[in-house]
Design a protein that fits this description.
14-stranded parallel β-sheet; about 525 residues; about 20% strand; alpha/beta; about 20% helix
Length: about 525
């Protein structure tokens, strides 16, 4: 849907100067997005050699004596002199450094450090604050599924009072077939530890295992991420599930429709939901007093209804135009970001009025929406009238994201004339930024661009994300310079797409395009 991460040949073209200038990424920043906002990344720890010993004890080998340094009159090397003072220089390092080292070790090797001293035992307990229980991939000898089960079970049983803030569990292959009872006991133990974040990934497991129902009893859980699993039935829970849950992220998850409905409706603290490739759900009816953001890849969804969402601010559904989904927004007075809409999203109901591309009534207007993403249906007859009428529904729009529908990219389309006498309030008075995705310089795209430039008085920035290089971008600038503009200081920025659009989806990790996870944020 959108693009991220320009290649080294990415360019920015200024229409004011008509030449290629140094690129910025993201637009408006001076150095690109920083994946380490709190400072530079930590230096990688020195490579440590795991001791080949049993789990209960360590085998010690005397350290090799260093060779004498050349020129040393006493014949004693530097390493020998350092060893003779009897100081444990590793233990002199601060706790933060040692905890960083432990975080790079496999679970078994990190656990073995607890036998060194009481301080190392305390350090290992502190490292469990973010418990990373991941099976090595590919599985190492002696560290397969059975070892992982014993290790995690033993740690949870031996440390009932250690604080565990987050628990990440990644399993590969079929090792947990018939062993979900173990995961049930882990969830019960984590509930006593007050876990706040849970990340479960059953990667490459066939068939997908069903997570135990004890997952719904984690009363302290605030963030839940589930991948490649079957979600337990939440519709028959005696008490409202997950009362403290704030963030929900599901990907490649099988679940029933009433389970998803129970989560959305009864999690009283839920604020952000991300859904991708959810199997078993063809309708979402949103009734939530707390939800602020809903993102999803809704290509297979048949109906999306926002019935009662007083705090919903962002609603982004990738695949809505291609899936012929029905969208109905009844009550969302704070909605600011909405997308993707297209001519195939029918019926589109705004408040209590069905929008079908015809005359827009006063009660249809959504004045709260500031950012809108639309899929321009260049391949459909009458697309100019449809888009013009759709934009009239959002009179206070400030940012417009535009991408061509897939059919118009792959085939020749009829170019229609835009009615320049048609008054559209948001274009004339409020739109200040337009983003063209998959811009190829086709005549139909240029027609819409010319229409916008001729009417948009507040427009300051137009961004183009395309597959072409610097020379092509420079040629496009030359074509745009003579276009009449309602706003004389419009700036054009060209960026090169380096990833297939099909692998990207929206996120809320930042206010600009996110390089960290190859995703994009609309706001």
């Amino acid at each position: 849907m959108c693009c991220v991460n320009p290649s080294p040949s990415a360019s920015v073209t200024s229409s004011l100067r008509g030449q290629i200038v140094a690129s910025e990424w993201p637009p408006g920043s001076s150095g690109g997005s920083n994946p380490y906002p709190d400072g530079p990344p930590p230096s990688p720890p020195p490579t440590l050699r795991a001791v080949d010993a049993d789990d209960q004890e360590f085998s010690g080998m005397p350290a090799k004596r260093a060779r004498a340094e050349p020129g040393g009159g006493d014949g004693v090397g530097v390493a020998d002199r350092a060893a003779e003072d009897g100081r444990d220089r590793i233990s002199e390092l601060p706790d933060a450094v040692l905890l960083s080292v432990l975080s790079y070790l496999p679970l078994r090797d990190a656990g073995r450090t607890a036998v060194l001293s009481s301080r190392w035992r305390s350090l290992f307990d502190q490292s469990l604050l973010d418990f990373n229980a991941c099976q090595p991939f590919p599985p190492e000898e002696g560290r397969g599924c059975e070892w992982l089960i014993r290790a995690v079970t033993g740690i949870l049983a031996a440390r009932p009072h250690v604080r565990i803030r987050s628990f990440r569990f990644v399993m590969y292959g079929r090792g947990f077939a018939g062993r979900l009872g173990v995961v049930h006991r882990w969830f019960r133990a984590l509930a006593l530890h007050g876990v706040r974040e849970l990340n479960v990934d059953m990667f490459y497991t066939t068939p997908k295992p069903t997570l135990p129902g004890s997952l719904l009893q984690l009363a302290s859980l605030e963030t839940l991420k589930v991948y490649c699993c079957r979600f337990p039935d939440a519709g028959l829970a005696r008490a409202p599930p997950l009362p403290a849950l704030r963030t929900l992220d599901f990907s490649n998850v099988n679940m029933s429709q009433h389970s998803l409905q129970a989560i959305l409706s009864h999690c009283a603290s839920l604020e952000c939901v991300k859904l991708k490739n959810i199997i078993g759900v063809d309708k979402i009816c949103l009734r939530s007093k707390s939800l602020a953001r809903l993102y999803g890849d809704f290509g297979d969804l048949k109906e999306l209804v926002v019935e009662d969402a007083p705090n919903l601010e962002e609603l982004v559904g990738i695949g809505l135009p291609s899936g012929n989904a029905k969208v109905k927004i009844v009550f969302a007075p704070k909605l600011q970001v909405l997308g993707y809409l297209g001519i195939t999203v029918r019926p589109l109901v705004l408040h209590d009025t069905v929008f079908d591309g015809g005359i827009v009534q006063l009660r249809t207007l959504m004045r709260s929406v500031k950012t809108l993403a639309i899929q321009l249906p260049f391949s459909e007859k009458g697309y100019t009238v449809f888009v013009a009428q759709l934009l009239k529904c959002f009179p206070c729009l400030e940012v417009l994201h535009v991408e061509p529908d897939k059919r118009s990219i792959s085939r020749w389309v009829n170019v229609e004339e835009w009615d320049i006498t048609n008054s559209i309030q948001c274009i004339e008075h409020s739109i200040n930024r337009v983003v063209f995705e998959n811009f190829g310089g086709e005549e139909c795209q240029f027609g819409f661009l010319t229409f916008l430039l001729g009417m948009a008085r507040a427009l300051k920035l137009v961004e183009f994300y395309c597959w072409k290089g610097i020379d092509w971008a420079s040629d496009q600038v030359e074509l745009m310079l003579p276009i009449n503009r309602a706003s004389p200081d419009v700036e054009f920025l060209f960026f090169r797409i380096c990833n297939p659009v099909s692998i990207l989806f929206l996120c809320h990790c930042c206010t600009q395009r996110c390089q960290k996870e190859n995703r994009v944020a609309m706001i």
